[in-house]
Amino acid sequence: MPKKILSVFSGLLIVVGLFLFFSIKTQTGTKLLSPLVSSNVPTPSPRPMEKYYFDNLANEEYEGSQIQLEEEYTPPSMYFEPIDDVKTWLFSYFSNGKKVTGMANIPNQCTENQPCPVVIMLRGYVDNEIYFTGIGTHKAAGQFAQNGFITLAPDFLGFGKSDYPDKDVLKARFTRPITLLNLLSSLETLPQINTQKTFFWGHSNGGQIALSVLEITGRKIPTILWAPMTKGFPECITTYIGDEDDLDKNGKKLLDQINDFCVKYSAERVSIDHFWNRINAPIEIHQGGADQWVPAKWSEDFVNQMQLRGKNVSYYYYPESDHNLKQNWDEVVEKNLKFYKKYL
Fold first, then answer.
1. Whole-number average pLDDT of the chain
2. Which are the contacts of 317, defined by CB distance < 8 A and separation ≥ 6?
3. What is the pTM of this model?
């Protein structure tokens, strides 16, 4: 064979060999790209909202921060009555680098040598235009403090003197359980608190936040809920948006965000009604029959779901009471105190 032909033939063998080499997949699973194909393979798009899945939040560590008692505080409310031997404070802590403020009641009897139980109080929805620190919680908090309980009612991001929340409405909403998880991790920094005696109190949307944390942590924190929001996501939002045809610009934008999330992500993994089995805490529900925001049937359905799973749940129904249980307020608070004292 002439040397020229042999040289060409050898060159072809080398090219074919290289092509085959770079095209095969090895037994270890490493894919070797063909030299004739571009190596600019697109990477999968990030899925940042998955970090809010309850399963993922359950695996996170929450360091919390030092709780600061910034100044003595008097909420601007006609219903606020200072209590003898109890100091009311504006407190603050940090949640994932952002400052969160709130209202604290600390009985004078609570000291480092004699720490007291603590009730973390989670209010429902309040329009920011009328909001003040302690709104929706301070009246009941006063009764609890008078009976020897420290109370902490966080404002949440965007309220009071807290830092601003994420501009994304859904991210801001999904962050609220994290805000509570970081507060739980911060309790030990306030020496007046007996962290072994921690309780939850939640009203309306605050009830949903409390339930979320009970599911994420599985902790047995005795919990009282007034007219709690127990609908899953996204029904807990879309129920109140109204008819799609009548929505304004902001309403349509929110609905578009929700629909986009449900397409890209698994909505049930951020939905409380998917994790009822994880609740281990004793729960007491109080529900009014004249509630215009949370129908009694929702609370009844939740109680039924808990009972079917063998959970420790008690239910009190007040036919004439509104969303704030105003018509039976004294009776409800008395039952709340009895419930908490049972677990001291």
1. 89
2. 287, 288, 289, 296
3. 0.85
